[in-house]
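Q: I'm teaching a short session on how sequence maps to structure, and I want students to see two examples side by side rather than one. Could you give me a first protein with its sequence written out and its structure tokens following it? Keep the formatting plain so it prints cleanly on a handout.
A: Of course. Example one:
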Amino acid sequence: MSESEELRTHLDPARLRELFDLKGNVYATRGGAFEEDIYPPFAHLRETGPVHEGIPGPLVGFHGAAVFQGLPEPDRPHYSAFDFATCDAVVRDSTNFSSSSHVPGSEEALHESSILNMDGERHHRYRTLVQPSFVPKKAQWWIQNWVQVTVDSLIDSITDAGAADLNVEFFAPIPLLTICGSFGVTIPEALDIRAAVTSDGLGLDRFMQIVHPIIASRRAEPADDLISVLVEAEVTHEDGTRQVLSDNEVLGFAFLLLAAGSGTTWKQMGITMMALLQHPEWLERVREDRSLLRGVIEEGLRWMPTDPVFARYVVNDVTLGGVDIPAGAVLHVCFAEANRDPARWERPDEFDPSRPLQSHLGFGGGPHICIGMHVARAEISTAIDALIDRLPGLRLDPDAPIPQITGMYERGYSSVPVRWDR
């Protein structure tokens, strides 16, 4: 059975729609059904002061229950920052702001199992274990082993149809199958894993059931994949002793990479592709000169990042933007609005890939900047490159409803309906 035939056999569109439906149960606790444009109220907040008391959702009109980094935390005071200078400074300042809800140095903090919640030297030591697999020069390793074959097979499975919802039929499976492929799991297992990582922890047993035997296998016989990298990695402790990661630590790394990689990149693909489809002059320019695609991807990340908000826990009493914030508070860092700060970008609300490249917060920043950002860029570039090459006359489907951005804490297009010439 060819790769494309296997994909058609196992990638049931109905199940994909269920697992990746931004308006469905999967994203309900991220404000998935919230359809208001967050940018005008965000801009008003930034213009009236860089820091405000409150949570981003309620500040812009979303009042539903939310489970996200820094939320719900009902017993802590909450503040939100909106300008680039403040947001950039906060994510770089690990002295006053922590990714962990625990007191730095406490017993609870020392037992954090996810690098997402670690800070300081401990975070650096653990992150360094996997960082070499995600540096720019490793992008080709990902593309050649997993990304390209997945992209080609998915296009093979839709090319004869002449129309598709790229969001579900193409973008959503790419990061999932890429990261799961790097673990050595099958396509049906990858879908089960997707269900596990989107269940707010309720499906972890299935994730462990699939991945734990792979860890044991790679300890016995390493392969050229990510699980092998993790089981062979050694962490150096403060006293100089070295230790390989435990099975639970490998599982923790694997779960984090899956949750982050398969949950965000596909939405950013949809945002980037929609920007091109809605600016056909740029689609044509990229078709003629693929070197322009880098600027398109970076502009998409600046203009509309799929994760508009992240949080930090305030370690010490601080004053930001004239606002006193007590230790123990949650500070929500609004990357989406920081990326549209007119103090840094001219015409910030416009999608303009020709603007000079400069750093943005589309992948966050500081020590916790997205570890998989170079792989994400490679996935987006490979996917859009292939669509332009293989689907002539690619355009928005004029008969489909106009796609709308949805979501509060995770945002994306609920569909990307297209047609092409057969």
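Q: Perfect. Now a second example for contrast.
A: Example two:
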Amino acid sequence: MLQQTLAKYAVAERINVPSPEVEHATKRAIIDWFAALLPGGAIAPATSLVMALADDVGHGDAVLYPSGVRATARTAALVNGTASHTVEFDDIFRDAMYHPGAPVIAAALAAAQSVGASGDALLRAVIIGYEISTRIAVALKPAHYKYWHTTGTVGTFGAAVAAATVFELDETQIGHALATSATFAAGLQQAFRSDAMSKPLHAGRAAEGGLLAAMLAQQGVTGAADMLDGERGMGRAMSQDCDWSAAVADLGTRYNITAMTFKNHGCCGHTFAAIDGALIIRERDGISGEDIDHIEVETYQTALDVTGNATPTTEFEAKFSLPYVVSSAFVHGSVRLDAFSHERLRNPDVRRLMQTFELRVSPELDAQFPQQRAARVIVHTRDGRRLEFLQPTRKGDPDLPLTDAELSDKFRELADPVIGSARAERLLDTLWALDGIETTCDLAPDSAHAAEPVSV
């Protein structure tokens, strides 16, 4: 009865008035999503998708960003979901190694624009999409993450229930949408173990698949009632010893959307604690890259499995290279979008530091994962000093969150070069007041005044 329990919650939550804390957290999630979406929409693979799906572009009620061009809801969900996962600045649910915003908000917004739903309806859809999908992700971990990209798999469920909420489907229909989502869910981890554009496509396909599942349920398409927890269901096929009780734990009383990680660096989240530690040492001890002889980093096993690439050659590989991003932090003082420019990828000071790295697993820090993502950075200077810092969590995690002001600054930094500062500020103001807008179609940018896309 798992799917039915989740569907029953979705219907009840739809008419529930969110608390001020939950509503504010949801606005933060949507602002953070737009911050990642706008630069991602100006580059491949999102731009390639628009060309490949030309027949679905130029008509419909949903919006592609940053251009403002109209498209069908499914195409908008696919393109915007992909775009928001491209520059590696989208949110994280730490306890499940899952990026809910890219699939959930992309699907919810496309659905909302397709029917002219209000900002308040969008907020409720996003809340429900986050709450159900983050709990499914927790139930499937950690075995699921060995081969599967949670954002591509579990994101489909979040997208489905978010879209179903906008469409005001009943409990039975939502159960069928979840069932169809289970058979649509995909996304293999190999996609981000090498240079490829497939990883952001996982988020886009999850958004599109979930939206389609809701649309099909609305038209009477049915699915098996035990697609999640059946003998041949998702839990058995894509995890081990799956604890489905976690999928309903505190549902409706504790809201995971209030405990999101908003990225402070433009790369894989498994590198963040080490970057934070490097930046603290850099400022605390007044050193730069040229002062360093060699660097040691101790962290948890998954961080090294995913980001241990010592010789990245492309922008994508560099975003998943702990030696590169930490070296860049020491040399340049930040790891934002410009950290992956052609010039910085080949910076000789960064490349020299990368060759000095020693990476190792700390049993202590590994035991804390995934609830805590820590790293110890040890720097040996050329004049013989040993400088050390243990970063117990990541800047942007729930226990060290970005403030509203810092989140707004992140939005401006990423949005201004793409759509211009004036338009970015207007959009930011609208998003902070999202509960008061009558139709999400008001979130459509004025494409005639869009700035030229920048290389990011």
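Q: What should students look for in example two?
A: Point them to this: The first strand starts at residue 57 and ends at 63. Also worth mentioning: The first helix runs from residue 2 to 14.
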